[in-house]
Amino acid sequence: MSVRYPRPLRPGDRIGVTSPSSGVPKELRERLEVAIRRVEARGYEVVLGSCMDGSGHVSASAAERAREFISMMTDPGIRAVVPPWGGETAIDLLPLLDWQRLRDAEPTWLVGYSDMSVLMTPMTLLTGIATVHGNNLMDTPYRAPEGLLSWLDIVSAPQGRPFTQIPPDRHRASGWDDYRLHPGASEFTLDTPGRWTRLDSGGDGGVGVGAEGLEVEGRLIGGCTEILCNLTGTGYLDTSAFARAEAPEGLLVYVEAVDGDAFAICRNLHGMRMAGFFDRANAVIVGRTSAPDGASLTQHEAVLDALGPLNVPIIADVECGHVPPYLPLVNGARARLVLTPTRSEITQTLD
After folding, report:
1. Which of 14, 38, 58, 238 has the greatest count of CB atoms below 10 A from its CB?
2. CA–CA separation, 150 and 35 (whole Å)
């Protein structure tokens, strides 16, 4: 198996929209329409699936969601599949998916994050097909800040040409846009300064960048901590086998927390480490989070407590999580991360 990249999208290509997890409530359908129009404005045709019901925590039965997901991912006329957003229990699709059929099909871009990690990360690990973590359809109307890209930029990028993303050093510290009141929201509210932070002892006392800085490379793999921790020890999350086959030089493993408090995240990461998820990591990238600290344990301390024994660089507060803005990462891509007192960037190459 080798990493396979779907061909770059061209105007006229079709993009499938389905909800493997949560659908869209009626009061948020206007936002969905705004997002679809934004995709269409880039020259693509949108195919809206039937698994979109937002009245409950899932859009349809597991069988229906699995069937529509497989149908879109293996349809040669659909070049990318993107959900409106994540949800809670897409894990129930995993035993229902025909993984051999997915391997045999022409690669199709799969985009998403949050609960979609439970499908995207195994997709790359089991089939070798690259997936894009970092945006969902409902985020698409937002303009990417200077230095960052949207998923639409990445799925249309020429294969083999490196692209670099540089964080804006500002993020949204609290709150969110109410799509019921503002369905056309397109500008991120970035109200708080903040840079990437090196947590391990290779930094400045474990809390800064370090005078010499850092440059580290590897293939990207990762996703949402609270989602992926439920797959540890299963055949769906064997990063070591993937590294042996596709990244003998090692991995850049990224994780990010949604809303679990520091104690829960600490436990989750300990379990993932003991199950071998980080065994081939050259470095660990940790997404910025608004999840709460514990009374005696911060989110940064939770990461260090669990992952410090790896003795690899740990770079936190990267824009690859639930806190706007969003820095998309391609599972399976070769990447180089640079962090110095004056420079923060990550370069990905689809080869």
Report:
1. 58
2. 13
